[in-house]
Amino acid sequence: MSVAADRAVGAPLDRVEGRDKVRGEARYAYEHRPEGVVYAAAVTARIATGAVTAVGALDGVLAVLSHANAPALQEVSDPELFVLQSDRVRYRGQVVAVVVADTLEAARAGAERLEVTYAAGSHDVVLREDHPGFYKPEGVNGGYETDSVIGDPDRAFAGAAVVVDERYATPALHNNAMEPHASLAEWEGDRLVVHDSTQGSWSEHNTLAEVFGLEPEQVRVISPHVGGGFGSKGTPRPQVVLAALAALAVGRPVKLAFTRQQMFACTGYRTPTLQRVRLGADADGRITAISHEALSQSSRQKEFTEQTATVARVMYAGKHRRSTHRLTRLDVPSPSWMRAPGECPGMFALESAMDELAVATGVDPIELRARNEPPRHPESHKAWSSRNLVACLREGAERFGWADRDPAPRARLQGRVLLGTGVAAAMYPVYRAPGWAIARDAGDGTFTVSIAAADIGTGARTALTQIAADALGVAPGSVHVEIGDSDLPRAGVAGGSMGTASWGSAVHGACRRLREEGGPEASYDTRADIAALQEYARHAFGATFAEVAVDADTGEVRARRLLGVFAAGRIINPKTARSQLIGGMTMGLGMALMEESVMDREFGDYVNHDLAQYHVPVCADVADVEAVWVDEEDPHLNPMGSKGIGEIGITGAAAAIANAVHHATGVRVRSLPIQIQDLL
Amino acid sequence: MDADVTLRINGTERSLALDTRTTVLDLLREHLDLTGAKKACDHGQCGACTVLLDGRRANSCLVLAVACDGAEIVTVEGLAGAGEDLHPLQAAFVEHDAFQCGYCTPGQLCSAVGMLGEARAEGVTLDDDEIRERMSGNLCRCGAYANIVPAIAAVAR
Predict the structure, then answer these.
(1) Contact assignment for A22 to B45 by CB distance below 8 Å
(2) SS3 for A17?
(3) What pLDDT does residue B157 have?
(4) A648–B contact, CB cutoff 8 A
(5) Worst-scoring range by mean pLDDT, A5-19, A418-432, A495-509?
(6) CA of A620: which chain B residue's CA is closest?
(7) Mutating which of A23, A176, A263, A615 best tests the B interface, going by the most B Cβ atoms within 10 A?
(8) How many CA atoms lie within 13 A of A469 on its CB side?
(9) pLDDT of B13-26, one tens digit each?
């Protein structure tokens, strides 16, 4: 499509790599075939704890790598990358060997056939509230304090007119990006070149350099197209190290992809949570005290503590406040990031509790949230850079048809289905990472902009093209954006909903400088800008509405409508932004109604480890999902005035659906996913 | 063990000696450099590897190449007709933003082409619910279903 040169930002540009993707020409990591490439397959542990005692030999393969013979690695902060360096088994499904062969079939068959013997220990794999191992970690992810206590919440609860005090649970969830974690590794002398499925080529090249004892310049990571990540490719995962080890061992390029089944143990997951939320309020629903306590798990390998309860520090006013995190370490695979890690399960609990407070006080759920709107950040007391939660709620109420809602539960039977509607707030913080971009004028009216950004399906390449076009004062068609390669200028990861804001600022700076100063090229580094940012509380907000139909006889829940209204600053590309928001809401629908990784107590792994047993939403599950946004001018963010949109979509969806299920059936389900047996 | 196999792929006859364990998906991706068909589960559970096998949609990860001697296979690379840059469904997917990461997209497209053929043969009208039901073998973790359905509907009607 053609767009006026000064108005690319805000236009619904088609994805610039769209044609390549629909023609099957966009190449992902595993889809390159260098001369002499061979195949590797991983062998994973069949015990949850203990040691490998022997690894057999195989005919007809190029190599069998295990702790007994693998090249030595350097330890880095993520112990999951210290692969094949010890006989110890820390969780079932941990990689214990790699088989390398000339063909994929031979490698897979070899991995199946390889005899590995073990000395098994006992294991402890189930998160439970009375687990003796809970401790207070020094901090939680995102750099947040483990605990925050303000005032005297216990005394305030004792004196409150209305108290909601409930426990909520969310299961382990798996990202399950469609593209498996896959790598092609090749050594060119002492230089390592990998094609990897990663959300951050720049950070990965640094990490791989550490792992292999190299200088960063000796490692190149290439990832122009990535088949989804949702956090699970935010840091390097073991497959890239294994591929590089195998390539080192056999002296040829090696491809290795985890199978879907292996991904459930080897590539991370969202920790299960057990949460207690207490809300104390006066009879009009004004919150006097708020308490949010979160329990989660990590592995023996590493401490990973989600910031689950931090949402309670941001969302609502209230004088007396407490939010805490406790962690226990189990003999389980290491949890990792999954779309809105922390905020997503935390918001399910908090926004369910808000709905319970609405029921308890008889105040409309939208009005209740409006009454508890904090004028400043309720804990840091910083000014909001912008906060339009109430505008989102009001806009959504109008669009959704909330005004004539009868709050009575189980009051709408249509044929044999019970209907209900629910609402929940959405929230995600605004982050920004430093980055550097180079813009070049080809002299023929076209421009190339380079930055080691990643497009994992977010539309980043397209958004950066639009930002560059406006900053250069040219049409988007004149701009070529190069990303996905660690040889390009330094950039942060596609994570924390900060990609476009972080990379876009650098792209904008480089293009503006090129336009103003002329010459063949200009570059821009955003480090100084970020250091100079003023103190504001920066968050995106939203409101999610759901309408459900629950079969009165079978208990089956269908989400008939989902509407999200968001306040996320300036929207760079309404077409791709809408896609990302509805994508997040759709994943939230999965969290509400079907997704659950089930821990096998007996054997110690996630037992439903494939896409036939771990149910993600399919086309028939998604009837009417829509996302819109309110205009939001925020001068305290970045040159584009944008907030992130990758994660906020999921944060309100599960609670909105659970609240709608309560409205439909009168049953409050506090443990996800909502299942038939909860409603019968 | 190897076996000789001859297939027509996107209109071109290909004769190869293949390991009898090789699936159609691995034949395409690892032997013929046709990487449009994607491997996402390798168990017939996600549809990313969908191709048209003798005119019907099939999960190519579940089909052994040796069992397809003489078969006609069309992959995403072969959807656009002669002189066509994009098949109408491919153009509709771009227009409706019916994908994000793009990894399930070739399977969605081949599946949709197959579905349109099935509906024609069965005399079925493809309303949105019918499209949703018939496209539910193709998973999209990015959650583009709300755009995939109108993209297909725009071509189906």
Answers:
(1) no
(2) coil
(3) 84
(4) no
(5) A5-19
(6) B132
(7) A23
(8) 26
(9) 999 999 999 999 99
Which residues of A are known to be catalytic?
647
Question: Which chain A residues touch B95 with a CB distance below 8 Å?
Answer: 14
| Residue A6 confidence class, pLDDT cut points 50, 70, 90 | low
* 8 Å CB contact between A498 and A433: yes
What is the identity of the amino acid at A601?
A: R
- For residue A1, the model assigns a pLDDT of 32
Contact A610 B19 (CB under 8 A): no
Q: Which residues of B touch A103 (CB under 8 A)?
A: 19, 30
CB contact under 8 A, A619 and B101: no
State whether A579 and B144 contact (CB < 8 Å).
Answer: yes
Tens-digit pLDDT profile for residues A280-335: 999 999 999 999 999 999 999 999 999 999 999 999 999 999 999 999 999 999 99
Instruction: Print burial letters for A294-332: b (CB count within 10 Å at least 16), e (below 16).
Output: bbbbbbbbeebbbbbbbbbbbbbbbebbbbbbbbbbbbb
pLDDT digits (tens, 9 = 90+) for A73-94: 999 999 999 999 999 999 999 9
Residue of chain B whose alpha carbon sits nearest to that of A174: B141
Any A CB within 8 A of B84 CB? no
Q: Which residue of A has its CA nearest to B145?
A: A619
Q: Judged by CB atoms within 8 Å, which residues 13-42 of B form the interface with A?
A: 19, 21-22, 26, 29-30, 33-42
Nearest of A431, A158, A428, A368 to residue A278 by alpha carbon: A158
pLDDT band at A356 (very low <50, low <70, confident <90, very high): very high
- Determine whether the interchain pair B147/A579 forms a contact, defined as Cβ–Cβ distance below 8 Å: yes
DSSP 8-state assignment for residue B66: G
Q: How far is CA B34 from the centre of its chain?
A: 12
How distant is the Cα of B121 from the closest Cα of chain A, in angstroms? 22
A641: left (phi over 0), alpha (psi -120 to 50) or beta: left
The mean per-residue pLDDT over the stretch A177-182 comes to: 98
In this prediction, the answer to ipTM > 0.95 reads yes
Sheet holding A63-66, edge to edge: A63-66, A95-101, A38-44, A254-257, A182-188, A191-196, A219-222
Q: Strands of B56-59's sheet, edge to edge?
A: B12-19, B2-9, B72-74, B50-53, B56-59
- Closest-CA residue of A relative to B64 is A105
pLDDT of residue A5: 40
Q: Is the CB of A22 less than 8 angstroms away from the CB of B144? A: no
- Smallest CA–CA distance, residue B7 to chain A, in Å, is 20
Q: Does B139 contact chain A (CB < 8 Å)?
A: yes
A631: phi then psi, degrees, rounded to nearest 5 = -65, 130
Is residue A235 scored above 90 in pLDDT? Answer: yes
Instruction: Tell me if residue A261 falls in helix, strand or coil.
Output: helix
Q: Stretch B90-110: mean pLDDT, rounded?
A: 98
* pLDDT tens digits for range A98-122: 999 999 999 999 999 999 999 999 9
Per-residue model confidence as pLDDT tens digits over B116-132: 999 999 999 999 999 99
Look at A580 and B100 and tell me if their CB atoms are within 8 Å: yes
| Measured distance CA(A521)–CA(A438) in Å, rounded | 7
- Name every chain A residue with its beta carbon within 8 A of the beta carbon of B31: none
Q: Rounded CA gap, A324 and A534, in Å?
A: 28
Among all residues of chain B, which has the CA nearest to that of A462?
Answer: B100
Structure tokens at B82: 């002669």
Burial of A189 (0-12, 13-18, 19+ CB in 10 A): exposed
A4 pLDDT higher than 60: no
What residues of chain B lie within 8 A of the CB of A338, using their CB? none
- Exposed / middle / buried, residue A465 (Cβ in 10 Å: 0-12, 13-18, 19+): buried
- pLDDT for A392 equals 98
Q: Would you say residue A473 has pLDDT above 70? A: yes
